Amino acid sequence: MGSPTATVLRKAIRSVAAADEPAVTDRELLRRFVEDADQAAFAGLVARHTGMVLGVCRRTLANRQDAEDAFQATFLILARKAKQVGWRSSVANWLYATARKVAHNARVAAERRAKREARAATTATVPPVDRMTGRELLAVLDEQLDRLPPGYREPLILCYLEGLTRDEAAARLGIAVDTLKVRIHRGRKRLHDALTKGGCALGAGLLALAATSPAGASPPRLVEAIRAAAAGKVPPTVAALAKGAAVNGVMKKVVLGLIALVAVAGVGIGLGEPRVSTAGPQPEKAMPAKADKDRPAEKAADDKTRVIAGTVVGPAGKPVAGAEIISLPQEAGMPAVVGKTSEDGTFSVTVSLKNWSFLFPRAAGLAPDQFLIPSIDTPAEVTFKMVKDTPIRGRVLDTQGKPVAGAAVAVRSIQGFANDSLDGFLAGFQKRPADGYPPGGKWSAQLNPRDRKPAEGDPVYAASTDKDGRFTIDGVGSERVAYVYVAGTGIAATQVVVLTRAGFDPTPYNRETLEKIKSPYSEIGFHPMLYPPDTVIVAEAEKPIRGVVKETATGKPRAGVAVTLRERRNHRMPDLRATTDADGRYEIHGAKKADRYELSVKRDPETGFIGRTVTVKDTPAYEPITADVGVTKGIVLTGRLLDDQTGEPMPGFVCVGVLYDNEAAKMRPEFDSPDCYDFAPTGKDGMYRTVVPPGPVLLMAGINPTGGKLPTEARYRMVRKDPDYPDYFDKHLSGFRSGSNTVTVIQGQWCKVLKLKPDQAEVTFDVRFQRAAEFAVKVRDADGKPVSKVVVAGHTSRDWGSPDTFESDTCTVYELDTAKPRFVVLLEPGRKLVGTLTLKGDEKEPAVVTLGRPGRVKGKLVNSAGEPIANTVVNLGYEHRPADEINHLVNGDWRSTERRIETNAAGEFAIDTVIPGEK
To answer: Which member of 14, 49, 649, 891 has the lowest number of beta carbons within 10 Å of its beta carbon?
Structure first.
């Protein structure tokens, strides 16, 4: 008689053998796992998809352990959702999307930090790297695969990324082989066209490049780890990553916790805490300066100040006397009351230009209609029209229901909408799909998160809770969205989304959100809970974190060093920081309990210390965490960004990637997590300074975008490879080979491989940008008359970018390439005239394009029974990306609140601006 162990083993072998048969669908394996507790069935499912999932994670994450954690977390999410979802015959599509999401979360935080750094140190008003979102951090192949319709994507995943034959894939999907062949053909064609437009060659070799390990070569230790996790033995790192992925979106930072409290308390206690983020859907435009006169500002005696005069009127247009004029710095500095209005509502103030600051009026019962930034695009004479206010009145309680006294409450962001109404936002919020985001606003103001108490007067958009935990914040305005941040002694910092609509009941919206997050695709979206203006906020107990920062070589403490808690795998965790004392000690308050904690020390280019990140595990209950950080000196890399033709400095940024064969980064713990890939911005003099490890590194540089004006950065050539070191660059994708031989995206528009020696303390290297060739295009209407002020997309060599406006009747197309035809789309917004042209690069200058009337599409949306489908958003997509960019400006999409095409009660819709001749 066999032993129990042998019996279990034979059963497992039989289950896995059955799982290897393509005729056994993924859905059937999940059913066995759920209904029969068949762990071997789940192991067989894991074995089927290991190669594909691990490949996705490795292509996104440079660190091997990070990739394996993401890999395990993907299957852990599948195990947890196995009971919740009506699965299809194959889960390859779901696993592919989830793996991309989980792995991508690890890259989002660095990009956001980089954008904030670049914004704080330069005068540009847009983030670096072509105004891209998180998508640029994904491999081009994965990006284009993800854009394919699911019916075309899944056969490619199964046949190319998982190595199934066509017969096996057809059996797995439950379709005929001929049907599968058609889908593969069409999927490859679409993928080929998309990659060719982006500059990548397509073939079996490119798809094979993504298949980093075949499905049948599952690493046994990883499969066993997943089986253990599914059975409940989850490593803390994987649990934290799975938890973070389950609630995080490409642009969001949101928490979905305290569900039990929501069920008990009902209205007012939401579930989640979205944090202000620059990675999500952006406002459609910056808040305008509504000036009476656009004359140049009067210059004060000091060039670092300026005088601004104007009038403040109320909702009825009458002057508002005694209104305070507030200056609120966006970064460092304290708010100040810089003036007051006279009896006729007029004012004149002198404001500093040293820091970016908001300028706005404050008056009882009212709120400003705009937040001006005097250092950019603000006229010397303005009119503020105040709007009605809806105060935010709330109460902060702990998890025991007791009031929290003395907590600091502050508004960190305000969003406004068209017609001063939340109707569009709420309609879009309800219509967003499971993998979608809430709509963006017409404008937004990101406020200084620091102390808001001016030297005189009341706090600005801030308050402290009283003994009953109550607070009131005035001046946000009615019909707006506010991100409210709460912090205090003994509690974890938290942030909630408040809608300032009197009597607003968030219950139906939050109920729908709870349903949306049940979908396996919700991990790709953004699903915050909403709070009313009269609300209750529940604060968790804090988890103290303390430690010492010291130099590893000498053991000496490092004083005055900022230590940041920024857990990239757990977006419930707020961004917190502390500064070390004379003994190198620090203590962070306000953290939330988690499975793991990630603490970072940034590079110090003045002293030469390199940045480092350490991760520590949780302790029982709310016992303090101890996390010491050892740091060492790297190599200071410095130089200037210059125009190669004129020698003039070019404000911009650099970042440095550690190449795959860098032994110093592999061998020394102090070099295993440098922050040199984070942007190092220059000043106006073009000087940069950063700290990097020794060994092979890739220096990348870019010029600051100009934000809707003529594209300064596009006037220079794109250098995406170093011809002296071709082996460091991927042959198909626009990336370099970083740690674990992962392809990492090249930032900016120039790069150079540097081989740095350990004994070098400082290295100087100047970056010279070469001018790109320019090609003139004249714009005419149907009568042959010049057309000025046109919006143009596709005029630069960048795959990702935004349209720019040319004021004259001639626009410029940059860096044409005969090997890559350029598709350009032009729009005259006033008359809605459109035109397109394709430039092959060998045309005679100038080309002439004629704009004409756009096409118009009318239709009706019905269900299978022929009944109309009402109130549904209709999106329009084009074959070429420049056409999509122009279409978004004109027609919007489901994320827009101001421009969106929807069906009426009869299911009818009309699209008034369609680009003729474009598929």
So the answer is: 14
- Beta carbons of 38 and 82 less than 8 angstroms apart: no
Residue 119 host element (H or E): helix 92-121
CA triplet 200, 715, 659: central angle to 5 degrees?
A: 50
* pLDDT for 389 beyond 80: yes
User: Residue 135: is its pLDDT beyond 90?
Assistant: no
* pLDDT score of 124: 32
Q: How many CB atoms lie within 10 A of CB 35?
A: 11
Q: What is the DSSP letter of 708?
A: T
> Are the C-beta atoms of 156 and 184 separated by less than 8 Å?
yes
Residue 452 has what pLDDT? Answer: 72
Kindly state the average pLDDT of the residues 248-273. Answer: 28
| pLDDT, position 404 | 96
Q: What size, in residues, is the chain?
A: 919
What's the token pair of residue 7?
């019996």
Q: Residue 8: inside a domain, yes or no?
A: no
Whichever domain contains 824, its CATH number is 2.60.40.1120
Determine the Cα–Cα distance for residues 34 and 731; give it in Å rounded to an integer.
44
Mean predicted confidence (pLDDT) in 450-475: 86
Q: Shortest CA distance to 485 belongs to which of 253, 646, 217? A: 253
pTM: 0.61
Which amino acid does the sequence have at 551?
E
Q: Are residues 59 and 197 in the same domain?
A: yes
Cα–Cα distance, 616 to 546 (Å, whole number): 11
pLDDT value at residue 430:
85
DSSP state of 166: H
Give the amino acid at 201.
Answer: A
Only one residue has tokens 């691990």, namely 54
For residue 451, the model assigns a pLDDT of 64
Torsion angle of C-alpha atoms 681, 684, 686, 690, degrees rounded to 10: -30
User: Which of the residue ranges 107-111, 298-302, 568-572, 861-865 has the most confident prediction, judged by mean pLDDT?
Assistant: 861-865
β-pair type (804-806, 767-769): unpaired
Residues 174 and 25 both lie in one domain: yes
- 112, 218: one domain: yes
Rounded distance, CA 465 to CA 394, Å? Answer: 9
- Dihedral in degrees, nearest 10, Cα atoms 165, 210, 672, 682: -160
Q: How many CB atoms lie within 10 A of CB 661?
A: 14
Q: In this structure, is residue 5 part of a structural domain?
A: no
- Peptide linkage before 651 cis (omega within 30 of 0): no
Q: 466 and 408, same structural domain?
A: yes
Q: How far is CA 20 from the centre of its chain?
A: 38
Alpha carbons 129 and 718: distance in angstroms, whole number: 12
The secondary element (H helix, E strand) that includes residue 793 is strand 790-793
- Segment 70-86, tens digit of pLDDT: 888 888 888 878 776 56
Q: Contact 897/431 with Cβ under 8 angstroms?
A: no
Specify if 253 maps to a domain.
no
Note down the domain range covering 849: 773-919
Cβ distance 279 to 111 under 8 Å? yes
DSSP string, 458-494: S-SSEEE--TTSEEEE--S-SS-EEEEEEEETTEEEE
Cα–Cα distance, 495 to 447 (Å, whole number): 14
| CA dist list (Å): 347 to 127, 171, 723, 724 | 34, 76, 60, 62
Written in H, E and C, the secondary structure of 796-825 is CCCCCCCCEEECCCEEEEECCECCECEEEE
Task: Please compute, for residue 889, the number of CA atoms within 13 A of its CA located in the half-sphere on the CB side.
Answer: 23
User: How far apart, in whole angstroms, are the C-alpha atoms of residue 736 and residue 677?
Assistant: 13
Q: Residue 788 — φ and ψ, nearest 5°?
A: -110, 170
Asked if 97 and 68 touch (Cβ cutoff 8 Å), the reply is no
pLDDT of residue 877: 81
